[in-house]
Amino acid sequence: MRPASYFGCLASLTATVVSTWNNFDLHPVLAPSYDKAELANIVPSTNVNLDYGIDGLDIPEDPLSSVSIHLQTNQPTVLLEAIGAVSSVSCSRNAVSISFHTADSFQHATMAWPHDGKFYLITNHLGNCDAWSERGIFQVTSLSWDTESMTVKAQTQKTTLANIAMSVGVDFAHFQDTTSDNNGNITFDEPGLNVASNFTIPAGTVIFAEEPNFSTVARGGYLSDAAVIRGHFDFNVPGQQIQSLWFNIDAAFFGNLAVTFNLTGPVENSNFAFTPGTFLPSTVNVPGVFTLTPALHWVIGADVGATGPVVHNSNITVTIPDGHVHVDFLNNTNSRAVGWGPRFTSSVSTEKASSGHVSPYVDFSVDLTLNVLNGLYNVTGGIAAKPQLINEINVAKSQSRIRKTNHMLSLRNVTCNSGFELRSDFNFSVTAYVEDKWEMSLYNTLIPVADECYHF
Question: Same domain for 198 and 128?
Fold first, then answer.
């Protein structure tokens, strides 16, 4: 499972990020399903919707970058922010006082709220009940009423969402149905959680080496990525069981890489790699409910092996403008990908040749780590996109051929009788995975690039 183990080293690179896309500061907003003028919102219910805005958005009807939580509670619950007639809320150590500004709403509460308690109040930073970015949850044990001031005082004990919930359903970014259309295409047209990063690879960087016979130097490079994330999960609280979990990821990336392989002697088949950077945007966090931590990873690597000296140059530029993936963490057969057709240019040259292969690649991945109810459920999964140039060098009259383990080019007779044959293909793959559970290929293409004979 990902991440893979590699031979290699780390390099110090220049990194910049689009910070305005990567900060997820959540704060409570009223869910659009509630009309504050409706007296029905005073009646306790076991179904409660809690929305959170991201990046300072206060307009609940705007679906951009928001989180919606649906609770089924084990006792009826009153969401105070949904009652427009509430004029003030104040909290003390063991009580919550709620004042109404209309007689009708106060009278409605006296009839609807159980006088023996046994229901919950949820507050939302009115008065001193909770922090700005949080809601308060209180178990009511008894009520007292002041008709003159239209105030009800509830004796309470503060509790947590985990204690009151039978089930928790969470939508990231107010998604619409994103199953497939009649043509089998996935349609993603909703805003979501936006993340992006950029890395520059300075010319002259030794990106990996193996003494005494091998080193690879970058002659320059630039890596850029962006992803938009939406998703959903349902969690059964008493059973501590996840019942559904999936993410839709829209991704785009650009990679430009020029490398020189210098082999002064034989090198055994190996996979070399180094990490130019990992970017961790802000965690999406609703205290006591869940945390979602995105991570963007880059790996530059190569499959290398040769019978003797090789000096080889590879240049590759790849653009993926519009890739979409649906990853079902619980049922991998529901995962699918569309739109990943790569645009690429490449060039290869060899100055010194022995039979072997020198095949550079770039691996870009989006990891999503989800923690539900303070560790009752934890999982990490995501996608990885990997463009690779597969370069094979076959020297005439050589008695040995070094073959790489993955993406082997088809075997055939060497036709260069007085030189060497250079064959190059471009391979691009997209993989979905859930760590320690499953990994599967969603997209793969192999495109011929070069098949030339060079005379000594």
Answer: no
Q: Do 182 and 155 belong together in one domain?
A: no
- Give the mean model confidence (pLDDT) for residues 237-257: 94
* 177 in the same domain as 121: no
Q: Is 164 a member of any domain?
A: no
Neighbouring residues of 445: CB distance < 8 A, sequence distance ≥ 6: 341, 342, 427, 428, 429
Long-range contacts of 207-211 (CB under 8 A, 24+ apart): 207/8, 207/9, 207/11, 207/259, 207/274, 207/300, 208/7, 208/8, 208/9, 208/272, 208/273, 208/274, 208/301, 208/302, 209/9, 210/7, 210/267, 210/270, 210/272
Q: Tell me: the pLDDT tens digits for 319-340?
A: 998 899 999 999 999 999 998 9
Q: How much is the pLDDT for 272? A: 92
**Tens digit of pLDDT for each residue in 13-22?**
444 434 334 5
pTM: predicted TM-score of the whole model, two decimal places? 0.85
**Which residues are CB-neighbours of 136 under 8 A, at least 6 positions away?**
91, 122, 123, 124, 129, 130, 158
Q: pLDDT at position 191, please?
A: 64
Contact 52, 26 (CB under 8 A): yes
Pair (224, 79) in one structural domain: no
Cα-based distances in Å from 125 to 29, 133, 134, 199: 11, 8, 7, 41
**Per-residue tokens: 125:** 């930073």
Q: 3: cis peptide before it, omega within 30°?
A: yes
CATH number of residue 117's parent domain = 2.60.40
Q: What does the alpha-carbon distance between residue 364 and residue 223 come to, in Å, rounded to a whole number?
A: 9
